Amino acid sequence: MAALTIMVDYSVDSQVAILTLDNPPVNALSQGVRQGIKEGVEQALADDDVHSIVLYCKGRTFIAGADITEFSQAPKGPDFHAVLKTMEDASKPIVAAIHGTALGGGLETALCCHYRVAVADAKFGLPEVNLGLLPGAGGTQRLPRLVGAEKATEMVTSGNPISAIEALQAGLIDRIVQGSLLADAVAFAREAALSNELPRVRDRDDKLQTARENPDFFTQVRQSIARKTRGFLAPEYNIRCIEAAVNQPFDEGLKTEAKLFRELMAGPQAAAQQYFFFAERQAGKVPDIPKETPEIPIARVGVIGAGTMGGGIAMNMVNVGIPVTLVETSQEALDRGLNVVRKNYENTARKGRISDADVEHRCGLINGSLDLNDLADCDLIIEAVFENMAVKKEIFSTLDGLAKDGAILASNTSALDLNEIAAATQRPEWVIGLHFFSPANVMKLLEVVRGEKTSVTVIKTCMSLAKRIRKVAVLVGVCHGFVGNRILFQRQYQADKLAHEGATPQQVDKVLFDFGFPMGAFQMSDLAGLDIGWSKAKSTGATVKDRLCELGRFGQKSGAGFYDYDEKRTPAPTPVTVELFEEFAAKAGITRREIADEEILDRLLLPMINEGAKILQERIALRASDIDVVYVYGYGWPVYRGGPMHYANTIGLDQVVEKLRRYQAQTGEAFWEPSLLLLDLAEKGQGFS
Ligand code: 3HC
Description:
- By secondary structure, this protein is α/β, with parallel strands linked by helices.
- The protein has three domains: about 1-265, 2-enoyl-CoA Hydratase, Chain A, domain 1; about 300-480, NAD(P)-binding Rossmann-like Domain (Rossmann fold, 3-Layer(aba) Sandwich); about 485-585, N-(1-d-carboxylethyl)-l-norvaline Dehydrogenase, domain 2.
- Helix content is about 45%, strand content about 10%.
- The strands form four sheets. It has an eight-stranded mixed beta sheet with strand order 13-12-11-14-15-16-17-18, sandwiched between helices.
- The longest helix has 21 residues, at about 595-615.
- It binds 3-hydroxybutanoyl-coenzyme A (3HC).
- 3-hydroxybutanoyl-coenzyme A (3HC) binds next to strand 6, helix 3 and helix 12.
């Protein structure tokens, strides 16, 4: 075997040239890979003793795409298109041997081979849309020619990969191999060489016919994804490319694709989404945990509290086969909780996402109990009762007496002092915060809260468990509200102030919605329930929220809160809320005025950025990008704006400081004082990094 580059080897097995790529971890198309493929194909074409070529990858996967780290660097040859042209125009058949994931530029490479064979568990996709891009190396022109415009549109707009069996049925691959991938691919190449055919995907046209005959096809696609893709540029650009594949000759289509690719690549959304790709992966890395740190095997989990949170947490565990003991204080509450879990699964089964047998299996993995002693054999116990320090301390003190040695004791608190909770036990190093987001079975974020004494073994175990239950974990320190809620408090405070000063809740909410959040601050409060932390007996009616609760307006669940709701939970503005804000403003001597959307947006977002900076300064978050991960996955910050800290970088930190100072001067409030870190970075002309 001869090395063409450090990433590609060349060998010949009885007239079949084998190009072996080795660029761990995912065989991305880095410069050395591109060069190696081009040189390898050229060498094979020049070698009279070679009749065909196999492209094969070492390691865990076929090429998973372009090397995203190269996007921000000066281009280095050879150009990817030139590599693909060499392959597609080759006078000897090339066979792609695919395992793992053929994604993005990887699939585009395979599409320029004459044949594709794959193992049964291989996956195929064009996920560029998730990076704010479109497949820029012919993928949008070649894929529909193989699988039809319908399937191709679905793949490029969702970014979701398809299985080998689906790929075979759709015509994307030629064969699923059962034995050794390389040996079978070489055998396939021999057959191909005998056939004397060199099928090129670009020459196909038949599969485009159905879309040509359906003039409404693209309109229907746009309508069907409009809600999901609101605000994103890339899905629409991907559709335009498939339209070009259907309506333009191949080479014209390629030009359209290249033009739209360049536009996306130059825009802020692609930058934000690529930033976020790495931010998400970075979040899982904890610098002060040595590699050799052992992990505790988690074979059974206990959950205390069968309410919305507890039930959702239990579902996460049983979804991946971890049995759960779910404890409640009364049979009625336990039955209610178990019923909600069952109904959730039945709904999922109705949508065809799991089978009826799965429903039974998962429900069967939850063992309901009224006795905390039943948690004695659990490796991890998660307390998910309401936010009351005294109650939580009592529970932890009890757990200390009954949990087995080496069990992790976790609290799902969303704001309370974890160190105080840990101090209620004799084993604070085993105590950690696992802050799930509601609905816990749906939301991807998990804030892992590290107490003063939490051991690294416990942290490492919980970060791994998060992966196992398919969450994105972000490690945070102890402070009121941790990262997510602490920042949110600032936004809620301003939303409330704006409504006192003259903005309507729907104006505030619309500004946030237009920015890209799925809902605004008042709608979010209504969804969470206005009565959290409120009690009828103790209510003093001191805030608009209290007064709404006194009126029985607890939010969506009671059909009314800041908004009125119909049976479909659609919000409608109500004079009740506005009158209350007017009344409170009058009492406080606030002169109400019209407030421009721009001021509303500034006043909602700048305090979030400033609080994020304070959190970094206090080392509550490890990195700015961790805060962004919390916001995108926990609070619906639009990923195409990267998260609050990335967004601040795009505005420029000097601008952020200037605006904070302006509001400070206008209001005289210390609230607007920029954090020291923000001031420092702005002065140095730097961003959060
Ligand atoms: N470029 C550079 N680095 C990449 C990469 C890529 N395309 N894909 C993954 N990596 C890196 C990750 O950053 C991570 O690095 P780290 O260990 O230092 O954090 C490492 O590879 C492993 O990645 P994951 O942790 O994500 O590993 P998984 O096994 O969970 O997932 C994967 C593997 C499914 C391949 C996933 O990494 C993935 O989806 N990658 C991106 C695929 C993609 O978007 N391809 C299209 C790229 S754009 C393109 O091709 C443009 C073209 O059309 C011109």
